[in-house]
Write a sequence for this structure.
């Protein structure tokens, strides 16, 4: 059966929805059918959505003529992000994910990226294995802290919005080392990119940067964005998202979380999420600061696009 990688089209919706709607039914289902048309609208030089076209499909029905889908997004001049990798159940085990990933790597490298990363939920064992087989290597892991917005929250330490002090702290912090310099991207949701000094300065100018300072800078966070999401009851909620939470010790963590709680309330948020490194230190500091934390971590994988094999190496040299 001939399989062809091509750009996704609006008319692929029914085929894509047919094999993604019931993905992870015990976890609320897949987001792709809900946002497909909006998702592919952004396809241009900085984004591309790929499908694997199976022609008439296995059985000759429209619902099986797309064997898989994935999307690539440029986050910076040198960073790309891969997301939305899904494979039709009837085509699993046939190298569909590898073909899509090769197309993603080729597109990203052609756009100037030197690294492409993706995120895999820690419970998605199949997705983890698929990513490794496709050429991604382990990068980092994180968890979501979810402190409750509170307009009356009072930090015990001084909180400022100092971008230079924040940058000096971040570059020398254990959190940065653990996260490989990454934080939530400022534009692409559910994506991580390198946190830059310019982002801290922009956040400071807009009142979204929080640095805990007491005998030096001891903690850092910045509000990334606010967005609306339906809760389980179908009601709309406002979320405030913070790109990263980093601190030197438990005392600084408490002050940082109080600052986040107050800021989230001021921003009109009902709920929050803060990306924090995944380890017993940061998770236990979060718990000690009386902030809730997600039950499971998420994993980030990365592929070095500059590491091209020579002519004598076969495709298995990169696991692709």
């Amino acid at each position: 059966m001939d399989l062809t990688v091509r750009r996704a089209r609006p008319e692929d919706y029914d085929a894509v929805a047919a094999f993604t709607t019931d993905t992870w039914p015990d976890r609320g289902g897949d987001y792709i059918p809900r946002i497909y048309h909006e998702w592919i609208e952004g396809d241009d030089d900085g984004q591309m959505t790929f499908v694997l076209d199976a022609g008439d499909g296995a059985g000759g029905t429209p619902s099986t003529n797309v064997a898989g889908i994935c999307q690539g997004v440029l986050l910076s001049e040198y960073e790309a992000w891969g997301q939305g990798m899904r494979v039709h159940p009837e085509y699993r085990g046939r190298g569909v994910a590898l073909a899509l990933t090769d197309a993603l790597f080729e597109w990203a490298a052609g756009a100037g990226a030197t690294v492409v990363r993706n995120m895999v939920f820690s419970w998605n064992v199949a997705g983890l294995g698929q990513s490794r087989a496709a050429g991604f290597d382990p990068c980092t892991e994180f968890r979501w802290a979810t402190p409750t917005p509170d307009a009356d929250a009072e930090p015990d330490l001084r909180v400022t919005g100092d971008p230079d002090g924040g940058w000096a702290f971040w570059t020398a912090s254990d959190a940065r080392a653990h996260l490989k310099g990454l934080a939530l991207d400022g534009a692409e949701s559910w994506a991580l990119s390198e946190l830059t000094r310019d982002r801290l300065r922009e956040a400071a100018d807009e009142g979204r940067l929080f640095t805990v300072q007491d005998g030096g800078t001891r903690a850092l966070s910045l509000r990334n964005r606010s967005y609306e999401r339906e809760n389980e009851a179908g009601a709309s909620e406002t979320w405030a998202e913070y790109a990263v939470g980093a601190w030197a010790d438990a005392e600084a963590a408490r002050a940082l979380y109080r600052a986040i709680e107050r800021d989230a309330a001021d921003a009109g948020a009902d709920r929050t999420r803060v990306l924090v490194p995944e380890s017993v230190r940061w998770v236990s500091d979060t718990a000690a600061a009386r902030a809730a934390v997600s039950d499971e971590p998420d994993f980030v994988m990365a592929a070095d696009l500059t590491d091209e094999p020579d002519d004598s190496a076969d495709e298995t040299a990169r696991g692709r």
